[in-house]
Every structure is written in C-alpha cells, then in structure tokens.
Design a protein that fits this description.
The protein is an all-alpha fold. It is about 70% helix and about 0% strand. The protein has a single domain, classed as Alpha Horseshoe (Serine Threonine Protein Phosphatase 5, Tetratricopeptide repeat), CATH 1.25.40.340.
C-alpha cells in the first residue's frame, strides 16, 4: 500500500510533536559540541509548519507537503539546521513529484534525494559526525528493503531503525565538520544532535506510515 497526503500530513504533525518532546535533549546534545540552539531552532520551525497544513489546497500531494516543510524551515530555522533540513525536504519533494501515492521504491528514492541534498549543502560524508551518519545508513537500509519488495511502511521502518543506530554510532567519532570540529578529540563521547534529530524525524515518518497502512 502506498503512502498518500494523509501520511505526509501526519508525518509533519508527528515530527512537530517529537521535536517538541525532545527539544531539551537536542539542546543539551548541541550544547555539548555546538552552540546549543539545535533543539530550539527545530522546534520553532516545525511549530511554524503545523498551522500551514490546514491551508493545503485540495488535491495536494505528499510532494506539496514536503515542499511546504522545506520553505517554512528555510525561512524560520536559524543555524545550520535550517538550510540543511530545508534542502533535504526540498529535494525529497522534487523526488516525490506530483504522485498522489508513494510506494516502497519511491520512498527509498525520496530518502536518497533528501540525503544527497544534505551532502550537497553541507559537504559532509559518512564518519564526519554529522546528520549524514544517520541519513546514509537510513538510505542504504531503505534501498535494500525496497529492492527486496518491501512496501512503503516497511521501507521507512528499516530506514528509521538504521538511522537510530547511525545516530548512536556518532558518539565515538571525532567531528570533522561544523562547529563541533573545532573541539577535535573533545567531541568524542558526544552524540551528534543533527544525527539524533534526523533519527527522530525518520521514526516519525515510519510511525505515520504504520498508522496509515495498519502495518
């Protein structure tokens, strides 16, 4: 079963809820190795998106929802998170196109486009202790699941699980990008806040898909 506009809207609402729930945690993680504003900025961004969902035109698609998220985050979220997440959602929207429903393969391609957008914008790669360390395992798991014939919900579940493991795996890494890179070895032992928020958002997508399909 594919994922439609209802899933996309539910994903955004769940994203706002999970970011608000983990706002203090994300602030703490970012304070450890960054400037401490990640949780606050992301919470403000998604809080701004939610009311706009009610203004979506009839016949809107998942891609339209993703584009709405992108433009709102770019205009309201400061720091590095705004441009990075904004680009991710914008590229995901372009990948989703005008399709009213997304199957497993389409979801995998959408996640890959989002990841590639982050890479293009932030110039980071796996092992740099950034959100890419959550996104790349997620994309790999999603692509593998889709290739095996998994439906959209299962693809997102695989991506979310891999992202959570990827975020945890940033703890022993030395940061090589962003403000955290200035700490050098002192960044070891701290989880990257962007990787953690990425894992939370992908879990929200998987939860929305599970609810949507009854999986």
């Amino acid at each position: 079963m594919g994922l439609d506009i209802n899933w996309a809207v539910d994903w955004v609402r769940r994203s706002a809820e999970v970011v608000a729930e983990h706002r203090v945690e994300l602030i703490r993680l970012d304070r450890d190795i960054g400037d401490g504003d990640h949780g606050e900025n992301l919470d403000r961004g998604f809080e701004a998106v939610v009311p706009k969902l009610d203004d979506l035109a009839a016949g809107s698609t998942p891609g339209d929802v993703l584009k709405l998220v992108a433009m709102t985050l770019i205009s309201t979220v400061g720091g590095a998170a705004g441009p990075l997440y904004g680009t991710a959602y914008l590229k995901a929207a372009a990948s989703a196109g005008t399709d009213a429903s997304l199957d497993g393969s389409a979801v995998a391609r959408m996640l890959e486009a989002a990841r590639d957008g982050i890479v293009s914008r932030g110039k980071a790669e796996s092992g740099d202790k950034t959100m890419i360390d959550a996104w790349t395992p997620a994309v790999d798991a999603a692509t593998e699941a889709a290739a095996a014939g998994a439906d959209a919900s299962a693809v997102l579940a695989a991506a979310a699980e891999a992202a959570a493991s990827g975020a945890e795996a940033t703890e022993p890494l030395v940061a090589r990008k962003g403000r955290a890179s200035y700490l050098g070895e002192r960044s070891v032992g701290h989880r990257d806040p962007g990787a953690q928020s990425s894992a939370l958002l992908l879990q929200a997508a998987a939860d929305a898909a599970s609810e949507s399909t009854g999986a």
